[in-house]
Amino acid sequence: MSKKIFSGVQPSGNLHLGNYLGAIKNFVELQSKKDTDCVYCIVDLHAITVKQNPKELRKNIRETLAAFIASGLDSKKSIIFNQSSVPAHSEAAWILSCVARMGWLNRMTQFKEKAGKDKEKASIGLYAYPVLMAADILLYDTSHVPVGDDQKQHLELSRDIAQRFNNDFDTKNFLKVPEPLIQKNFSRIMSLKDGTKKMSKSDPSDLSRINLMDDKDQIINKIKKAKTDTLPMPSEEENLKNRPEVKNLLEIFSSLSNQSIEKTKNEFSGKNFSIFKENLSELLVEKIAPISYEIKALLNDEKYLNEILLEGSKKANELASKKIKEMKKIIGFCE
Ligand code: TYM
Questions:
Q1: 97: phi > 0 → left, psi -120 to 50 → alpha, else beta; which?
Q2: pLDDT tens per residue across span 278-288
Q3: Active-site annotation holder among 201, 216, 296, 328
Q4: What's the average model confidence in pLDDT over 202-222?
Q5: Is 198 a catalytic site residue?
Q6: Integer Cα distance of 79 and 65 in angstroms
Q7: Active site residue 325
């Protein structure tokens, strides 16, 4: 049976190495697999759960698309579109928010983190965000969802919502229960300044992350300034436990070079850390600088980018409007 892949990325600016290694790199690999249909979405409806400047949002949607294409996504192989251009996402989100339970949403740790201390001031959209994510996934009969580790809890919620809908309306497998596709080793890339914190676009320090738009000099500078310690590279994996920054840099190197952490560690074990950093910089420049260059080139061709979105939205609309129609029938809205 064919695999159906769906995933999404928020157009909130500053796409970074975590997004690339945790998600986009996998999107690219999946689109070339046999019997695999891929749908990749720029989730602009998710972005407005926090305040956005309309001009910036418009720019960020194109920037995210450019990052997809520059990383190797191909609109001939994958459906690529922005969420707000397919109305079924909003419709399904409402229906599913009547299926999801408050208790389930109250457990979502990302809401707690994002809302911070003043939950009363958070938008209702920020709270209901995982329900919209479930709508995204379930509209396309998705079998697998490639994401970074931070989205695991939201995916579990999508599974619960699908099962609850199927039970409530006695429609056995109408909503397909999706499986997460989370890589074992490189699913959580950490900040370059604090190895216990996730690399994130909202970190106020730009030195904490490698952005996909960074150029060669910025990459070299950030790796030079990345936090480490005075010890050499350890020879045992055990010794990495209390060195989260070192572990993170090793993981970044291994993921970029498609090799095991063990192999990377052996390559540099006992050597001075500066040698490893030099090699990591070179590797990052080799892999990320061309993406950065290509994103900037693509942003000059807005017509091309708009065409991709238009074509992708048409295809996504065809699939999603069929599913929402069936959903409405099941609920009793129409014959
Ligand atoms: P978003 O936009 O925050 O992140 C996009 C993808 O990047 C991954 N990611 C990371 N992976 C490893 N290390 C990191 N430091 C790191 N930071 C981000 C995320 O796990 C994600 O895969 N809610 C989602 C978007 C979404 C979605 C969906 C995803 C909306 N609908 C349906 C899958 C299916 C989000 O905010 O991702």
A1: alpha
A2: 999 999 999 99
A3: 201
A4: 96
A5: yes
A6: 12
A7: no
CB atoms within 10 A of CB 119: 12
Per-residue pLDDT of 87-135, as tens digits, reads 999 999 999 999 999 999 999 999 999 998 888 999 999 999 999 999 9
Mean pLDDT for the chain overall: 95
Closest to 134 (Cα-Cα) out of 167, 169, 109, 98 = 98
Is the pTM higher than 0.85? The answer reads: yes
Rg (CA), the chain: 21
* pLDDT above 90 for 43: yes
| CATH homologous superfamily of 3-188+302-331 | HUPs (3.40.50.620)
54: Cβ–Cβ under 8 A, 6 or more apart, which residues?
Answer: none
Distance of CA 141 to the CA centre of its chain: 19
Nearest residue to 280 (alpha-carbon basis) of 24, 22, 17: 17
Backbone angles phi, psi at 232, to 5 degrees: -75, 175
pLDDT band at 242 (very low <50, low <70, confident <90, very high): confident
Which residues form the pocket of ligand 1, taking CB atoms under 6 Å from any ligand atom? 6-10, 18-19, 22-23, 43, 46, 133, 136-137, 145, 147-148, 150-151, 154, 187-189, 198-199
From the centroid of its chain, how far is CA 175?
23
How remote is the CA of residue 238 from the centroid of ligand 1, in Å? 29
Cα(147) to centroid of ligand 1, in Å?
6
User: Which whole number is the average pLDDT over 15-31?
Assistant: 96
Indicate which residue's Cα is closest to atom 5 of ligand 1: 9
Cβ contacts of 222 within 8 Å, gap of 6 or more: 192, 207, 209, 210, 214
Q: Report the C-alpha gap between 316 and 99 in whole angstroms.
A: 24
**Which of 243, 240, 265, 244 is CA-nearest to residue 254?**
265
CATH code of the region 206-297 = 1.10.240.10
Q: Which residue has the tokens 């909202």?
A: 202
**Domain range summary for the chain, segments of one domain joined by +:** 3-188+302-331, 206-297
